[in-house]
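Sample log: DUF72 domain-containing protein.
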Amino acid sequence: MALHVGCAMWSLKAWQSRFAPGDKLRAYAEWCNAVEGNTTFYAVPSRATVTTWAEQTGPDFRLLPKIPKRITHELRLTGTDEDLRVFLDAIEPLGPRAAALWIQLPGSFGPADLAVLARFLRDLPTDFRYAVEVRHPDFFTDPRRLEELLAQHRAEWVPFDTTAFFATPPTSDAERDAWMKKPRMPRRDTALTDRPIVRYLGRDDPARTVAGWQPWVETVAGWLREGRSPTVFVHTPDNADAPALARLFHDEVRAKVPGLPALPVPVPPEPTTLF
């Protein structure tokens, strides 16, 4: 039984005073046991860089690398053999930390494109697990065809729950920015595999973030009782409190599932001195 929790990134200026000094990913991994691999969406890192990620985290840490947008958004999963080969070679040093490769598809990729996704999934190496995030509203109106396709490939559907965020108008600059940029996605809580993945967007007010995730506490606790091993990523518009919130989410689930091990206590930052 395991619950992995984390954030959208492993480094943010607002976290520096809370994290131990040193390697940023190593410090982050003292707080959370998972992270979204957003950096690989924008550019393929070198193997040397990925090797340092592996060295800074334990084998049970989950880093979910996103397949580059060159493959998902520009080529739209067609003619991707060489780009995919380069990406897979780069992330190989992660080993078991690459809990799933994340296929985030553009909002224009709809049910009419399912044959393309089916071909892409069929040709992927079986060494990895895969997770797919869709944003076209028609997938949520009638999810059956996508669910059947993903189940055939033991792939998970990644929901991005933004319902709590869009429930009331923004009240800060960060929220106003997110209001314009974040997708309006419904809450979807159906797990297709033994490793469901959730993205949850709260508010800058921690109390409102916690109130909004209460349905997920129940859902995730239920998954754990079923023998699943979920990963939950907590977002807020400014992400200033995201690591602490992710740990709090873990604590709330653990209160309902007492057999769930606690997260390790983070290494405290060293006090500043004058000498």
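Observation: The first helix runs from residue 24 to 28.
Observation: The chain has two domains: 1-11+159-262, 33-158.
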